[in-house]
């Protein structure tokens, strides 16, 4: 029994080792939005192609990502929704137990949003009642791979122009890649500056999808 427990916990530790790098966690967050090639991941993460490839190999070795070769390119995707849940739990534990996380959030995010974010349940209710306009402030590639029903894509590089086109009389709810995604905070801040009633979803698209809520894909 002792040998079994040692061996099984060593296997669990392999997952921990794969996750013990900030760049790899960022890569998982990007892949939770949409599949990407090594080159695309390198560009969005700011890493070299070689470094990105090394991180991906470590993630694939423990089954957190899968890959498909199409032509000359290899495309990676997150292995399953339980990986998204693992990342969500890691974030929650860090929020509750790491003071440094709280300080970072308070410095860069919370100061921009004095209102409580909406839960998934509340947002779905308001969407079904036609009470809100939902905007997805992720890049177009991620929006096309999947988004909340009826959401309007407002990519980061088009934020200023697109926000001005929204109905100022309709409440707007923004969402992004996750609970700590800066894009949704920025969108809410800019909308409120224009006098629009705006709030954000409590987390992001991956958590919405993994929880079994309805999802749409662009044609």
What would you say this structure looks like, in words?
By secondary structure, the protein is an alpha/beta fold. It has helices at residues 2-19, 22-33, 38-45, 49-61, 81-97, 99-108, 120-128, 140-145, 159-163, 182-193, 205-210; strands spanning 36-37, 65-70, 73-78, 132-136, 152-153, 171-176, 198-204. The protein folds into 2 domains: 2-79, Arc Repressor Mutant, subunit A, CATH 1.10.10; 111-210, Oxidized Rhodanese, domain 1, CATH 3.40.250.10. Helices cover 53% and strands 16% of the residues. A 4-stranded parallel β-sheet has the order 5-4-6-7, sandwiched between helices. The chain has a 3-stranded antiparallel β-sheet with strand order 1-3-2. Strand 4 (132-136), helix 8 (140-145) and strand 5 (152-153) form a beta-alpha-beta unit. The radius of gyration is 19 Å and the shape is globular.
Walk me through the topology.
Elements (H helix, E strand, L loop, with lengths): L1 H18 L2 H12 L2 E2 H8 L3 H13 L3 E6 L2 E6 L2 H17 L1 H10 L11 H9 L3 E5 L3 H6 L6 E2 L5 H5 L7 E6 L5 H12 L4 E7 H6 L9
Parallel strand pairs: 4-5, 4-6, 6-7
Antiparallel strand pairs: 1-3, 2-3
Helix pairs in contact: 3-4
Query: In what order do the strands lie side by side in the largest sheet?
Result: 5-4-6-7
Q: How many strands?
A: 7
CATH homologous superfamily of the largest domain - what is it? Rhodanese-like domain
CATH architecture of the largest domain: 3-Layer(aba) Sandwich
The tally of helices reads 11
Number of domains: 2
Mean pLDDT, nearest integer?
A: 92
- Which range does the strand content fall in? 15-25%
Computed structural class: alpha/beta
CATH topology of the largest domain: Oxidized Rhodanese, domain 1
Instruction: From the alpha carbons, calculate the radius of gyration and give it in angstroms.
Output: 19 Å
Order of helices and strands: HHEHHEEHHHEHEHEHEH
